[in-house]
């Protein structure tokens, strides 16, 4: 609907403004600057973004200043066109800017606060021509805010130093009292590093609440509690953010290991058994467990047991390992070097949240073990259900304690996988193995976790565990030239054999080391029955063929060596005495006779020239 403007009531005309009349020349150029909105919403003063009302004020000022620059340019061009003087243009712009507040208030219900002094406005206008938005910000570096603080950085440092560095652990209230004593010259505060003695006159009097609030600020607690905290895990739980990661889907991708003491005691002294567990993260299955009354040697036993288990199951060792540093740091240059036992190794230095197995330990404690007799609660448990009760501490005999804990681990592995309800944790581990895992690097791990035996090789056999064993390589007993090459190196010599026993106590893997170099593998020779009628299956025949080939390889080599030797003789004329000065009487002596050698003259017949007889008789008999 169209209305005649003059027919409207006066107060409505004033509110709308007459569209036929321009009250202020800035109206022609004014519009809210979109770039100013983006600039001031992103600007930070001393690391903090501007408040919304301050942003709004700067956006209006920037929009008016942008219109002012355009108005000045238009008037300058107009005066040049009319050949007039350019003096006083800024003064007219300042007047228009000052009066423009009325228009802004009526039409947009806002006002600007640009300077009305010609000198100040002219300076600001010049700066805004180079950079429109930044010169409009008051105290862009935040210096005035810091200078206005009652508690400056130096005073705050005094608070943190008194709270952190004293021999006892003072409370924030005690620090406030110490600061008051310092201001009243009852105490001296100095810098231990520089020796500077602080003057109380340089510091302001502050209320106790102000001091406590500064000490309890997050950025200050982050630093002071690190030094004051006696429990690193508690500090990390309160202040250190943790990583958020997706769990692997393939078994064998990564194994998490750690030690734990189940909450049971096996004697009246309160001693608890030590366990060392390994959890495959993808399947959540516990794949390796060892135990003992102390931590002595438990880590070596653990790695031996892991190799036994994975080898007998027919699986490759996990690709990656995550572990704690206290027991594993001594292996970082050999066993836990990437590429030795595992392809990747992550050692966490006292970081409980960095190891996934800590979650499994919590499940074992509160979901599997809590209902067992003799279970002990944590003194500092947060949940009331997990706190100490009035029940008397019960002693569980060591053997029974170990057996019950292993039964719980067995039950745990047979429980449903959290993401695959149709599979148990152990079924998931067996069926979802990573197909790209690398074979076990026996050469790298056996010298570290294997048993060492010094032995020798005699007639092609190496004695280990009171049994003669054959020379092998890559899991296969050698024959032929390959066997001979190994025997050239070790036959008749002493060397070291590093070997690992399986769960049945038999040799699982054995390697020969000579001068710190791997020579060959040692394997048990398959046996067959001496009586032919008791050779009931093909394995006896295969063993007979293998042993025959093993023996024949040495025999054939002996024949080749013997055939290379020519019939060589020697006449030794080396004198056996120095002289004949000593002679015993009445002995018959036989002196060698010198016989003349007869020289025969050549016969005349030897110089005759052969002349074949001419025979004209034909036939093969004559020719013959």
UniProtKB/TrEMBL annotation:
**Protein name according to UniProt:** Transposase
